[in-house]
Amino acid sequence: MNFLASWFGNQNRPWARQPWRRVTQFVGLFGLVLAIALGCTPNNQTATDTPGATDGRITIGTTLTARTLDPADAYETFPGILLYNLGDRLYTYEPGTTNLVPQLATAMPTVSDDSLTYTIPLRDDVTLHDGTPFNAEVMVFSIQRFMENGGRPAYLLSEKIASVEATAEHELTITLSAPFAAFPALLSFSGVTPVSPESYEIGTGSFQPDSFVGSGPYKLAAFTSDSIKLDVNEDYWGEAPANQGIDIQIFTSAANLYNTFRTGGLDVAYQTLDPEQVTALEREASSGGWEAIEAGTNVINYMSLNQTIEPLDDVRVRQAIAAMVDRPLINERVFQGQAEPLYSLIPASFDVSEPVFQAAYGDGDFELARELLTEAGFSETNPLTVEIWYPSASTPRSIVANTLKESIESALPGLVTVNVQNTEGATLWENVGKGIYPIILSNWYPDYYDPDTFIQPFLGCENGSGSTCKEGPSQANGSFYYSPEANDLIAQQRAEQDPAVRQELLKDLQQIMVDDVPYIPLWQNKDYVFAQGDIDGVSIEPTQQFLLWQISRG
To answer: What share of the chain is helix, strand, coil (3-state, %, to 5)?
Structure first.
């Protein structure tokens, strides 16, 4: 994925960096697949034949690769999961919940009256993997390195933090450049983890992709293109893992992973399985002796409508397209029920999420679509042509686009024609911000667990005029949406410390989204985990993390 490095010119701008999360989903993730068993087993071995079956080690299989384990540069899903288990953060989430709690901090931050300064007390009993004592200076070094080395996720902190300093041996003080209520949640990002100043350095482009020296429950023992090994950190300050280590096997295809799991060579399979494989494993769970676990995700899938291209500059046309979308049909035909219809860009897992598109446009309301198009001047003698683009490597989006085409053209014959187009993913995302494509099918993986990550990257714009964004997040997302009202509301909700008041502001932003329709939410993925009967502690967190230290052999 090195070609991604040249996609955006100014790497310090947030809107120039955030598409990484989306791109990763297309080029490497129809879902993450993990599979767990004891030892590294050839595909013809059973779980009981697995080397290491008596030493308590767990094997994880995945079809994904980890480009890097340097927390200052890792910005893909799988490395994020590994870093979450190899390192600690100032704040984390209580397992099984979305309750943010201290981890390396000893309390939630004290926030100044102007909401700019965060004072964080730190633990004094933590030692890094190389024996370095953890203190505020180590955390300052790690945060500065994250911001200054120029890695892919650097903007997450560099655009928000004005200064970070050690105000006592175990007290960290961070001053923001502007109020940001979600800042404690941001500090739970997998890459904001302490690393040893003895093993790392601050400097542009100075990264260590195949090593990790931090503070977590595991130490990195081996890192190659086809396997990763984590050993238990015997000096870990917190609760010891429920296993004796993790051996990760990287598979070349979902089919290999599926077959290996079915024949007992792996203990757990997690995501990237095709819908047919998921259905088969669910159906055979009882007879096969494994458990099927279903969980929601925070990955959203949506249409981005470019309002700089006619006739999408007419809000009535965008509203009509929203009315044409039949989400239950997409879920049934494309995903075999393995998704959830999405009616706001904020996932339903957040309390603040409002199903605004369902209330305003329904699903496949073609009469409403006809009324709106007629009002906009379209008819059978002056039909509307809709052009939908998707990355060619994405089979699900190909099926979604053609399902929409068939549904719309069947319901509105002669009035609407849908042209489905695709191009290679790198080309697509290189040109999205240039305004080339009318409509694109895209997805979004959040950087941290807060509704802001589903609002600001979509509606925010730094430089715009009229209703068009010239430069900013919405331009990078392909809608080119610009609204001074939306910008003001975004700034207000980011600054608001009162959760109830902030929730009302987020509701207002969702209403703006449904009124102006720069995007159309489509579906929300489901997560599936398949665990052999003798494996315990396997689950996907509400925040989408996979806690390896909880897994044990029953």
So the answer is: 30, 25, 45
Give the whole-angstrom CA distance, residue 540 versus residue 81: 11
Does residue 50 register a pLDDT over 60? no
Q: What is the CATH number of the domain that holds 360?
A: 3.10.105.10
Residue 302 φ/ψ, nearest 5 degrees: -155, 170
Query: Both 387 and 515 in a single domain?
Result: yes
Q: Are residues 369 and 499 in the same domain?
A: yes
CATH of residue 146's domain is 3.90.76.10
Token reading at 456: 């600001």
Collapsed DSSP state (helix, strand, coil) of residue 164: strand
Element (H, E) at 261: helix 254-262
Burial of residue 440 (number of CB atoms within 10 Å: 0-12, 13-18, 19+):
buried
Whether 69 and 82 have beta carbons less than 8 Å apart is answered as: yes
Contacts of residue 326, Cβ cutoff 8 Å, sequence gap at least 6: 363, 364, 407
* pTM over 0.90, yes/no: no
* Domains identified in the chain, total number: 2
**Domain end among 192, 209, 226:** 209
| Same-domain status, 196 and 337 | no
- Quote the crossing angle between the two packed helices 484-495 and 499-516, to the nearest 10°: 160
Residue 262: exposure state from Cβ atoms within 10 A (0-12, 13-18, ≥19): middle
Read off the tokens for 6.
């040249």
Structure confidence by residue, pLDDT tens digits, 451-469: 999 999 999 999 999 889 9
Is 50 exceeded by the pLDDT of residue 170?
Answer: yes
**284 three-class SS:** coil
Tokens for 496? 């608001």
Q: Which two tokens stand for residue 395?
A: 């089979």
> How far is residue 437's CA from residue 384's CA, in Å, rounded to a whole number?
16
Q: Which residue, 361, 299, 367, 374, is CA-closest to 326? A: 361
Q: 3-state class of 44 per DSSP?
A: coil
* 205's tokens: 């482009």
| pLDDT, position 269 | 82
Strands (E) across 363-512 are located at 384-391, 416-423, 439-444, 463-465, 468-471
Q: Other CB atoms closer than 10 Å to residue 46's CB: what's the count?
A: 12
CA distance between the termini of the chain: 39
Same domain? 381 vs 508: yes
Q: Is residue 216 part of a domain?
A: no
Instruction: List pLDDT tens digits, range 284-299.
Output: 999 999 999 898 889 9
